[in-house]
Amino acid sequence: MLHLQGLSKTYKTGDTALSDVSLTVPKGQIMGLIGPSGAGKSTLIRCINRLVEPTSGKVLLGDTDLVRLGKGDLRRQRRRIGMIFQEYALVERLTVMENVLSGRLGYVPFWRSFLRRYPPSDIERAYRLLDRVGLMEHADKRADALSGGQRQRVGIARALAQEPELLLVDEPTASLDPKTSRQIMRLLTEICSENNLPAIVNIHDVPLAQQFMQRIVGLRAGRVVFDGPPDQLTEAALTEIYGAEDWNAMRAGDREQAAAEAEAQARMEAIV
């Protein structure tokens, strides 16, 4: 379980990215983080694992306050947090299997990682994870030979190789087409459900968040302005988060796009 208590971040320029954010994410819950550009979504995720140093507040993963840890303890605690990036963050010259095994770097001695001699148990787990994300036949391919959706699946498998207690997911579908985006979101939600794994997903696509997230938190100017289930994300709530817009017209457009994609897929299947 993750607890954020009064989490704030002010940069040296005086700009405030987060202001007194307090949230609890229980086991198994998938929380979508939405808001306009510059609202603090990525900063929030990066403050949790201290890729960005919070100015004040607490980040409690279980009973451990990550904000108070020194470098050595923080490095060990980060093994408990899996991170999935928008731009995949893979080592492109390495194979898919090697990228997944890199999720074990925090658990093996340096010489093993340098020589790529991982324990058999780690290799077996990596194969299971590749099978779970649908990439078993691509295990020996270089990462730069994969499509965007396949690369994101490698990123998911790598994060799971850490055996994390929390997943932080930063805009996992921003570089993907609508169909692949839905497939990736479905995979993430299934995996979190199977492992009772909590996740925070920074996502810019509001309809996608409403479709797959159990809970949605809306940020504006670094503050939480909405926190509730997807069906409570009304036009008034969206206006509070993003500002005025014809939200009903946008939702109608999203439905039309989804219907067109489904029709195109059905035609392709009929041809095959």
UniProtKB/TrEMBL annotation:
PROSITE patterns the UniProt entry points to: ABC_TRANSPORTER_1 (PS00211), ABC_TRANSPORTER_2 (PS50893)
Entry-linked SMART domains: AAA
GO CC term, one of those recorded: membrane
Gene3D superfamilies, per database record: P-loop containing nucleotide triphosphate hydrolases (3.40.50.300)
Span of domain ABC transporter: 2-246
Entries under Pfam families matching the protein: ABC_tran (PF00005)
SUPFAM superfamilies linked: P-loop containing nucleoside triphosphate hydrolases
GO molecular function: ABC-type phosphonate transporter activity; ATP binding; ATP hydrolysis activity
InterPro entries: AAA+_ATPase, ABC_transporter-like_ATP-bd, ABC_transporter-like_CS, ABC_transpr_PhnC, MetN_ABC_transporter-like, P-loop_NTPase
Record protein name field: Phosphonate transport system ATP-binding protein
Native source species: Roseovarius azorensis
